Amino acid sequence: MAEEQNPSLDEAVTMYLATLSPEQRKGGQQELKKFVRWFGGERLLSELTARAVEDYGQSVSSFVGVGDPVKKLEPVRNFLSYTKKKKLIAVNLAPSLRTTKAKRKLTVKRGHKEADEVHLTADGHAAITSELATLKSQRPHVAEQLRHAAADKDFRENAPLDAAREHQGHLEARIRELEATLKGATIMEGKTTITIRVGIGCTVSLVDLSSGEKLSYKLVSPSESNPSKGKLSIASPTGKALLDREIGAVVEVNAPVGALQYQIEDIKG
């Protein structure tokens, strides 16, 4: 029985696809091929780890130029659930497959927090400013919720009070983060002409040399990163590889299976 064996990743995906309807295969086969190519088809399924799967999920946040990365990962998540259900693997790796949004880091020096230098596009600066204003406008409402919940003097099991405090804590933390981002931000001037080299604020058109898939990214700061809208962080592996490169250049991004190659077809500021 195939279920009693230790199949390779390629074999396991083939087994899984055979259980799907033609319509389901059409919707998920391309993403599963990317997953196999990332790790290597000959790699044994049992060699996959939660950390490796998590890294792949995070990489999708960088590579996706169009569409929702969560939806892109859905076929892979279903496949991983299948391998656990069929006892092809001992651990359910599906929960480890999630995307993350890059966040600006803070460094501590001599007892003070210093914000890393942040470069924002004009659109990014406007979006952050707008979000900050919206969050500050919510303060009176959140404070009222807190006062209302605190009116219940039985603090031992006051779930609304705990929820209100948590909500207020998240709100204030986000406000501080946005204020720090704007305080140390430099706005990058956009250009309307075709530019020679890739820089922050540029929109880059790429082609995957293995699959022929065409991708389009706008390089932005980690604070503006939004893969579902095609905004790629310059701190991501792909962003780092693209910076300061020219049209026609072939860039490589390291993956567990080896280097993935992309060719720059166009650069626009």
Attribute tags:
269 residues; alpha/beta; DNA polymerase, domain 1; Helix Hairpins; Chitinase A, domain 3; 3 domains; 5-stranded mixed beta sheet; two-stranded antiparallel ribbon; 8 helices; 9 strands
Compact summary:
The chain is an alpha/beta fold. Helix content is 43%, strand content 18%. The N and C termini lie far apart (57 Å).
Detailed description of the structure:
The protein has 269 residues and is α/β, with parallel strands linked by helices. It folds into 3 domains: 2-96, DNA polymerase, domain 1, CATH 1.10.150; 106-188, Transcription elongation factor, GreA/GreB, N-terminal domain (Helix Hairpins, Orthogonal Bundle), CATH 1.10.287; 203-268, Transcription elongation factor, GreA/GreB, C-terminal domain (Chitinase A, domain 3, Roll), CATH 3.10.50.30. The chain has 8 helices and 9 strands. The strands form 3 sheets. Strands 7-6-5-9-8 form a 5-stranded mixed sheet. A two-stranded antiparallel ribbon has the order 1-2. It has a two-stranded parallel ribbon with strand order 3-4. The chain starts with 8 loop residues before the first helix and ends with a strand.
Span from first to last CA? Answer: 57 Å
Catalogue the unreliable spans: 101-115
* Radius of gyration of CA atoms, rounded to a whole number: 23 Å
Backbone shape:
flat
Please give the CATH architecture of the largest domain: Orthogonal Bundle
How many separate domains make up the residues?
A: 3
Largest sheet: 5 strands, mixed
CATH class of the largest domain reads Mainly Alpha
Number of helices: 8
Quote the average pLDDT.
77
Strand order of the largest sheet: 7-6-5-9-8
Count of beta strands: 9
Structural class: alpha/beta
Reported by name, the CATH topology of the largest domain is DNA polymerase, domain 1
For CATH, the homologous superfamily of the largest domain is named as: Tyrosine recombinase, N-terminal domain
Fraction in beta strands:
15-25%
